[in-house]
Design brief:
Helix content is 87%, strand content 0%. The protein is mostly helical.
């Protein structure tokens, strides 16, 4: 049992030093998974507008909206993950990536 706890603590310590990169990977993966659904919703919502306005909204959503979300939400996610202690961080990260994998498989 001590070996397992030592492994979890070691993985958590390593993960803690790379928390920003891990949060960036989670955010990017979520955007890849849910981006097409968001784009489809925006396309349905703007279908009655003229071509130029639809294109402008789509470019603003993709370039600015997703970019700002990725840049500004990542530090908050890293900060939130940083609240977990060394006994829970590695299992939580494994669970998050497992759930993301399940969502990716369903898409």
């Amino acid at each position: 049992m001590d070996l397992l706890l030592d492994l979890i603590v070691t993985l958590s310590r390593w993960s803690r030093s790379h928390l920003h990169d891990i949060a960036l990977a989670i955010m990017a993966t979520l955007l890849v998974l849910f981006g097409p659904s968001i784009n489809a919703w925006v396309q349905r919502s703007t279908s009655s507008m003229n071509f130029f306005l639809r294109t402008l909204i789509f470019v603003l959503l993709c370039a600015i909206g997703y970019g700002l979300l990725l840049v500004f939400a990542t530090p908050y996610m890293a900060k939130g993950l940083g609240y977990f202690n060394n006994f829970t961080l590695a299992p939580v990260l494994l669970l998050v990536f497992f759930i993301i994998g399940i969502l990716a498989d369903r898409n």
